[in-house]
Amino acid sequence: MRATLSWLLHDWLDVGALTARPRFSEHTRETFESVLDVSERLARDKFAPHNRLVDLQEPHFDGERVHLPAQVEQALQAYVDAGLSLAGVDAEHGGMQLPFAVEMASTSMFHRASVGIGAYVMLAHGNAKTVQAHGTAAQIAAFAQPTFEGRYFGTMCLSEPQAGSSLSDIATRAVPDGEGSQDDPLGPRFRLKGNKMWISGGEHDMGENIVHLVLAKIPGPDGRLVPGVKGISLFIVPRKLVRADGSLSGERNDVSLAGLNHKCGYRGTVNTLLNFGEGRFPVKAGGDDQGVPRGPGLDGQGAGAIGYLIGQPGKGLAAMFTMMNGARIGVGLGAVMLGYAGYEASLDYARNRPQGRALGAAGKDATQPQVPIVEHADVKRMLLAQKSYCEGGLALELFCARLIDEQDTGTPEAADEARLLLEVLTPIAKSWPSEWCLEANSLAIQVLGGYGYTRDFPVEQYWRDNRLNMIHEGTHGIQGMDLLGRKVIMENGRGLMLLGARVQQTIGQAGEFAELKEQARALGAALGRVAQVTQAAWQGGDPQRSLANATPYLQAFGHVVLAWLWLDLAATAQRQLPQATGEQADFLKGKLAAARYFFRYELPKIEAWLAVVESRDDTCLNAQPQWL
Amino acid sequence: MRATLSWLLHDWLDVGALTARPRFSEHTRETFESVLDVSERLARDKFAPHNRLVDLQEPHFDGERVHLPAQVEQALQAYVDAGLSLAGVDAEHGGMQLPFAVEMASTSMFHRASVGIGAYVMLAHGNAKTVQAHGTAAQIAAFAQPTFEGRYFGTMCLSEPQAGSSLSDIATRAVPDGEGSQDDPLGPRFRLKGNKMWISGGEHDMGENIVHLVLAKIPGPDGRLVPGVKGISLFIVPRKLVRADGSLSGERNDVSLAGLNHKCGYRGTVNTLLNFGEGRFPVKAGGDDQGVPRGPGLDGQGAGAIGYLIGQPGKGLAAMFTMMNGARIGVGLGAVMLGYAGYEASLDYARNRPQGRALGAAGKDATQPQVPIVEHADVKRMLLAQKSYCEGGLALELFCARLIDEQDTGTPEAADEARLLLEVLTPIAKSWPSEWCLEANSLAIQVLGGYGYTRDFPVEQYWRDNRLNMIHEGTHGIQGMDLLGRKVIMENGRGLMLLGARVQQTIGQAGEFAELKEQARALGAALGRVAQVTQAAWQGGDPQRSLANATPYLQAFGHVVLAWLWLDLAATAQRQLPQATGEQADFLKGKLAAARYFFRYELPKIEAWLAVVESRDDTCLNAQPQWL
Question: How far is residue B208's CA from residue B577's CA, in Å, rounded to a whole number?
């Protein structure tokens, strides 16, 4: 995997070119590689050995404390000690100031080793980035910086028991915390009350603090919450209270654990139901510690979680999308790396497991020794499928990361183009690996047969872990609606056109290689179909009908994006092949075989998905609940 | 589900017509329904309540005994007490002499309630049927009858650690057990030595005995095993020894537990590695109990498991296929019912979970109350998909059961036709639900969102349980090879032609309904494609290349079979609809909607699978291991 990672970063994405930009001018290809070396070693030594442990010893709550295996904190501490939590942070704040693409390449190795442990890193990072993007200097110093430094952890608190995918229905209330609350140095101070569901990393004793980013509604003058997402604001709610200078006051905030969710997989990451402001940990006016200003609380007795408004009131969802978009790409990366881990495990097994024989013209010769199962066409099919899903998925996530670098450090035109491409690609980056790298995990189990179904091998755990990814950070259905209902039509379809131009560019380049002409043609046709079908979906009004098949649209779109990436990778490989020998030639032929697999076995699937979108099929829309 | 089950049995398969046959003449539609009533109640009361328990308390071995939750034995005892283990057995042997289709309908409800507990029933039943088909009268009396009566359990011992899918490589040896071993009243007596892997129900304390059916090889005069499947014989190896009259002698046979397999799911069924004949429980010549004749054993000290040859030497695999074919349909049924259980759970959830709102021309109105998620098109899509997979799968399994009844009680021509159709359909009956009802379980999780991923709801367990079904009783890859490599070409393709004629008949009947003309046309085209592609696959010699894409062929073939069944069901529903009102009309409209879903969303998928078979695509075949 390391070879592929470096090949994607350097030979395909040319991240070395970023060192010409002022922000990355201290870096070289060698510094990038050394970060990957450290990451690979740490992931292998500190994360991977505990991945089964965190599955078997899932978090438990004894009524007072949440218990995680000690190895989780040790692994995360090793990550912090290596400075990796500061990978993307400005040098002036102690960071490495690395490109995001390199940071993500580093992260990928931790996800591969243990996604359940790695998720804490991803959550903390996304949290701090959001505070950095929307917070005041004081908020950044008090909350983002310690998180970047690995001293604090972070969460995102969106869902509520009655509001899962429908954020407009959240009922957590935030009211100003008495006199002077608008003048708190850490930002307008509120008291929050409500219940938040599915909060990963919501409660544990690791690190010095947990920074919750919480969506809540500020009631209007009539005391009622504003319906819809317009009423949503974003708050920083620390688990332990901090003084204006960012130091811990020693008090707990009124945030308590209502319970843990016991999951099918991804058990390394504790998942919680949190009660904000129920009065379990009152923060009284004039309490023991005067370091944190506060009002009397919601009941006069200190009930209500202290929270600081971040950004503008009513703009909370937009601010949270800084974290959500990052998290969506992060989820996609996690899905990819679970798939990758399974691919590697099943490849290793297939190379070493003798079973069966080749079929000759006269059938099989039972007197001959058995062959390793990697020799069987059907096993190779399952391995090539995994390879095409996982390496393609990795290319997709790194491509998105590279766009984020462009957005951050490119010319204004390039940055704007990158922003728009990211809008269109984010639903794919999140959903596609969630679906297909899960399928990769299922194929990995299949390669191992009965062994794959046991806990003696890691692949069944990868499969269980990966099943979460189609659900959190916006379900598959939500991603489909986002893509077809918003992203491909926003700015008059400019994002889709930009993407189309990039695809055409690849088609042109690949078409120069005789070996890739067939694939270039197929991609051109597929692109045309997507454009055609996108238009057809929106013909005739009635958005409900247009969007009734948003998920099949998402699936088809994803496969076309992946075909594009594979053709681009294939062109890169084809370009290098004449100079390559030995292992490097095999490496490149592997990329070409995976690309060919994707074009022959996968891309043709799009027609079945597109047909229902194009015809605006109403079978599902019009099915009556009482028929089911 | 009960309504669908009865509709399939009576309105579609007309099992009532079987009562005109001598074997079933004591039965009526009412006696069939009363068996289903009892089964439904027992499954609900005695099996379903413990399904999560058997997942959480997986079997464990303390070095002496295997421990299962007591509820497993209680559930199975209740099943036996109701006489259900004797459902298909001749009246003269105390049985109900029911058609297999009705027996399977009964079984289906236990699988839905708890597949892990239900599997013991299926294994015992298949085991006894095999003894009945190939054993002597004494063997049947000693081993099959007590199993039918629910006093004994049964296993099938095929795989070995070094021989999973490749049975020709089994190394378990069976040597005659000394003087007089050929004259044992229970059949030629052998001593077996070897290791058997993946043995479900291989060790536990339930019932009075466990009858192992064991594949082993009898060495030739040179002491060597015959390579290939030609050398395989089948043996009855009881866990506890029995006397010639079938009574227990009080001795253990030399079969010992080497370990348990710890599985991802399906934990209700203990899965074992068994050592035969390692001398742990020696059966010495002239031992404590003279009731069981025996020789001195492999080492002169009684090592070697006593086994009785069943059928002819070297014909063991053919005999075992009696059990295998039944087990394959049984696995398919289990997969269907896991899917069905998930469908019902997710439908129930979708009807009761408010979330989100309909999309109007002006977007969503957040001031309106939320709607149950069953109102959303994408949720209906996921429910219709599940419905089409699971009800279609149930139709498939019952259709196969009905063919078995035809084989057993039809005219010679009808029986032969049924036999051949079963040959072709068995790989589909096994593989298709294993793949698509697993997908149904994944969709059920998706409908429940985060809740579906937790142990608070049953759907994640169904999904884990179902993942086994693509592996055991012949993997997906094996089923594909069986279908394309053997079944569709055997007897000059007569099986495929027979199936084609049945499909054409349905097309003709459905075409009479204007509402089904489009579907009838689509099925006709799909059938033509399958015929064409089957031919193309076998063009040009080189069976290895013909079979390189056997799995995509299996997938496409399966989808066409299901489309056929759905069209047949739709024609039945369409015929009844004019007379139906209220709930019954909704029921029939549900069938029509599921059929339409299948034709619009699923059947078009076949083209991508068929394309690589037709072109004899060699991408996978020729991929080199070092490229991966």
Answer: 52
User: Are the C-beta atoms of B149 and B169 separated by less than 8 Å?
Assistant: no
How far off is chain A from B446, nearest CA to CA, in Å? 7
Predicted TM-score of the model (pTM): 0.98
CA–CA separation, B453 and B467 (whole Å): 15
Q: Is A112 helix (H, G, I), strand (E, B) or coil?
A: helix
Q: Do A356 and B166 touch (CB under 8 A)?
A: yes
Largest CA distance in chain A: 91
- C-alpha to C-alpha distance for B42 and B34, rounded to whole angstroms: 12
Residue burial A572-585, b: 16+ Cβ < 10 Å; e: rest: bbbebbeeeeeeeb
CA distance B388 to chain A (A): 10
Nearest to B2 by CA among B108, B111, B121: B108
* A550/B480 CB distance under 8 A: no
- A185-195: string of b/e by CB count within 10 Å (b at 16+)? ebbbbbbbbbb
Touching B: A residues 229-258, CB under 8 Å = 229
Q: How many C-alpha atoms does A283 have within 13 Å on its Cβ side?
A: 36
Token couple for A368: 């001959």
| Pairs from A17-24 (Cβ < 8 Å, separation ≥ 24) | A18/A99, A18/A101, A18/A405, A18/A409, A21/A409, A22/A409, A23/A97, A23/A408, A23/A409, A24/A97, A24/A98, A24/A99, A24/A409
Phi, psi (deg, nearest 5) at residue B455: -80, 0
**How far apart, in whole angstroms, are the C-alpha atoms of residue A219 and residue A513?**
63
Q: What percent of chain B has pLDDT over 90?
A: 93
Which amino acid would we find at residue A165? S
Q: Could you report the per-residue pLDDT of B473-530, keeping only the tens digit for each?
A: 999 999 999 999 999 999 999 999 999 999 999 999 999 999 999 999 999 999 999 9
Determine, for residues A611 and B624 on separate chains, whether the beta-carbon distance falls below 8 Å.
no
The rounded distance, in Å, linking the Cα atoms of B100 and B399 is 10
- Contact between A87 and A98 under an 8 Å Cβ cutoff? The reply is yes
Q: Give the separation between CA A76 and CA A82, rounded to whole angstroms.
A: 10
Query: Over 80: is that where the pLDDT of B289 sits?
Result: no
Tokens of B53: 């328990």
pLDDT at A363: 80
Distance, CA of A52 to CA of B262 (rounded, Å):
13
Cα distance between residue A280 and residue B393, in whole Å:
52
Q: Which one of A378, A449, A586 has the shortest CB-CB distance to B627?
A: A586
Find the angle CA(B538)-CA(B544)-CA(B546) to the nearest 5 degrees. 25
Per-residue confidence (pLDDT) for residue A567, from 0 to 100: 98
Cβ-proximal residues to B316 (8 Å cutoff; 6+ apart), any chain: B215, B216, B232, B233, B234, B235, B310
Q: Which two tokens stand for residue A303?
A: 């009930």
CA A467 to chain centroid, in Å, comes to 13
Q: What is the pLDDT of residue A22?
A: 97
Q: Which residue do the tokens 């974003």 mark?
A: A234
Per residue in B601-611, pLDDT (tens digit) is: 999 999 999 99
Determine, for residues B264 and A605 on separate chains, whether the beta-carbon distance falls below 8 Å.
no
Q: Do B264 and A604 lie within an 8 Å CB cutoff?
A: no
Dist. CA A145–CA A139, nearest whole Å: 9
- Chain B nearest-CA distance from A368, in A, is 9
What backbone torsions phi and psi does residue A258 show, to the nearest 5 degrees? -90, -25
User: What domains sit in chain A, N to C, each tagged with a CATH number?
Assistant: 2-113 (1.10.540), 154-314 (2.40.110.20), 315-357+366-473 (1.20.140.10), 475-620 (1.20.120)
* Across A15-43, average pLDDT: 97
Strand B209-217 vs strand B152-157: parallel, antiparallel, or unpaired? Answer: parallel
Structure tokens at B486: 């053997």
Which pair of structure tokens corresponds to residue B89?
A: 């057995």
Q: Is B624 helix (H, G, I), strand (E, B) or coil?
A: coil
